[in-house]
Amino acid sequence: MFGVGPFIAATVTGEAGAVSRFAGRDNFASYNGTAPVEVSSGRRKVCRLSLRGNRRLNHAAHMTAVTRVRYPHSQGRAYYDKKIAEGKTAKEALRALNRQVSDAFYKHLKADAARAKGPGGQAGNDSPASAAGSHPKTPALRPGHSRTKTDPTPRRPQRNNRTSQAPLDTKRSRSERLAAARRSPVEVRRSA
């Protein structure tokens, strides 16, 4: 799409979220603030800029429209010139181009959603893992920063006292401890 670079594409994709939330292009335009707001009085019919909607999406649409107007060979410039020829002011023509850009965003988001049908965003991927290879039970970050529930680590089984060694005595010298280790377990218990 002319006038859309990687930053604007990422902004539109991230801010719009799932395009299935919107019933149509009019709802999407209302969400991003490019739908016209009528402020008519009497015989005077005027539409003004909407101050509602997602401002980041609105900014992305505006930057795309300005880029299209800047290049004389683009379809956006032809549309802008057509609106000027119809008698609209420069701001009204840019507002109309913003709405056209919003409709193009919606069309491309719908096409992308139709292409990516798998759970990981890849067509034909039937695994529960996403395209990045993560798994829902494995946290992406440290366990303290994740909301996923992980299985608690299993505790080591308790050893039987008869098979375990005597507790380490740090008050004795190394030679006394080695001599005690050479004795049988019964003798160790008696001397302790």
Question: TL;DR?
Answer:
The protein has 192 residues and is mainly alpha-helical.
Describe the structure.
By secondary structure, the chain is mostly helical. It has a domain at 6-115. It is built from seven helices and two strands. A two-stranded antiparallel ribbon has the order 1-2. Helix 1 (6-16) packs antiparallel against helix 3, helix 2 (25-32) crosses helix 5 (90-115) and helix 4 runs antiparallel to helix 5. The protein is rod-shaped. The termini are far apart. 16% of the residues are buried. The mean pLDDT is 78.
Instruction: Report mean pLDDT, rounded to a whole number.
Output: 78
Q: Classify the secondary structure makeup into a structural class.
A: mainly alpha
Task: Write down the secondary-structure element order.
Answer: HHEEHHHHH
Strand content: under 5%
How many angstroms does the end-to-end distance come to? 83 Å
Spans where pLDDT lies below 50 across 5 or more residues: none
Main sheet: which strands, in order across?
Answer: 1-2
Helices, by number, come to 7
Q: What general outline do the C-alpha atoms trace?
A: rod-shaped
Tell me how many strands there are: 2
Biggest beta sheet attributes: 2 strands, antiparallel
Oligomer: single chain
Helices and strands in order:
Blueprint: H1 6-16, H2 25-32, E1 37-38, E2 47-48, H3 55-70, H4 75-85, H5 90-115, H6 174-182, H7 185-191
Antiparallel strand pairs: 1-2
Helix pairs in contact: 1-3, 2-5, 3-4, 3-5, 4-5
